[in-house]
Design goal:
Helix content: 40-55%
Strand content: 5-15%
Largest sheet: 3 strands, parallel
Strand order of the largest sheet: 1-2-3
Structural class: mainly alpha
Low-confidence stretches: 101-107
Oligomer: single chain
Order of helices and strands: HEHHEHEH
Number of strands: 3
Mean pLDDT: 90
């Protein structure tokens, strides 16, 4: 967990997935012990925070974290499928990256 906390603090994580509120409680204990709360909050502000369901999302919000994706059905498979489908767009939106749009060529024969 300490290695993961350091990666979060450095902003080197794109997606964080929580499947129970207890996971967050344990992670936050390590964050507090390492005295990295502000850095982890900054790092997580750049990452997608995904939650398996309402109870986990409530715990994330109690810790002052925004939930970017909550599974439509509180099942692991649903969460992973939704992440696969939406994480790239969510990251672009969250980080303010421009969206690449394919343009039709104006050259003859194309």
């Amino acid at each position: 967990l300490k290695a993961a906390v350091l990666l979060m603090a450095r902003g080197e994580i794109d997606v964080v997935v929580f499947t129970t509120g207890v996971q967050l409680v344990h992670v936050w204990q390590i964050v507090t012990e390492m005295q990295l709360e502000a850095a982890v909050r900054r790092g997580l502000a750049r990452a997608i925070i995904a939650s398996i369901g309402p109870t986990t999302s409530d715990e994330l919000r109690r810790h002052g974290l925004s939930v970017d994706l909550e599974a439509a059905h509180p099942k692991f498979g649903s969460l992973i499928r939704e992440l696969a489908e939406r994480s790239a767009a969510l990251l672009r939106a969250k980080r303010g990256a421009p969206t690449v749009v394919a343009r039709e060529s104006t050259r003859p024969g194309r």
